[in-house]
Amino acid sequence: MIDSISPELMLKQIEQFKPEIPGVGANAPDGMDEDFKKVLTKLISEVDQSQKDADVSLQQLAKGETNSIQDVVLKMEEADVSFKMMLEIRNKLLQAYKELISAQA
Questions:
Q1: Are residues 86 and 43 in contact, defined by beta-carbon separation less than 8 angstroms?
Q2: Contact predicate 74/60, CB 8 Å
Q3: How far apart are CA 29 and CA 11, in angstroms?
Q4: DSSP assigned state of 18
Q5: How far apart (Å, rounded) are the C-alpha atoms in residues 3 and 10?
Q6: What values do phi and psi take at 56, rounded to 5?
Q7: Per-residue b/e over 37-54, b at no fewer than 16 CB within 10 Å?
Q8: What crossing angle do the helices spanning 32-63 and 69-104 adopt, rounded to 10°?
Q9: Distance between CA atoms of 61 and 54, rounded to whole angstroms?
Q10: Up-side HSE of residue 88: CA atoms within 13 Å toward CB?
Q11: d(Cα 96, Cα 74) in Å, to the nearest integer?
């Protein structure tokens, strides 16, 4: 015999699969701004590192230390995409901030 499925049980099961995101929801922890700062700092450092990796691979190609143009182009594209993503995140954050400011006025 098949057990019946209740909405409460389904919601409980769905909640178990949701990722833990600090600072999201009504019960945001006290250190929410610190977590947000850590996320942004990590994002910026990852973008910076990808830019540095692309620069190093380009220098290695120029010095003749590597022959793989594909690897250099790939690293440069990865750095470009990560920078564009960070820029879009910044733009969305600024847009949200401006909307909050205008809503309070």
A1: yes
A2: no
A3: 23
A4: S
A5: 13
A6: -65, -45
A7: eeeeeeeeeebeebbeeb
A8: 150
A9: 11
A10: 6
A11: 33
In tens, the pLDDT along 18-74 reads 454 444 444 455 666 678 788 888 888 899 999 999 999 999 999 999 889 999 999
- Here the tokens at position 1 are 């015999």
Whether pTM exceeds 0.90 = no
The two three-digit tokens of residue 65, written as one number:
């230390």
Q: Please say whether the beta carbons of 39 and 28 come within 8 A.
A: no
Structure confidence at residue 7 (pLDDT): 47
The dihedral region occupied by 62, where left means phi > 0, alpha psi between -120 and 50, and beta the remainder, is alpha
d(CA 98, CA 105): 11
| H or E, element range at 51 | helix 32-63
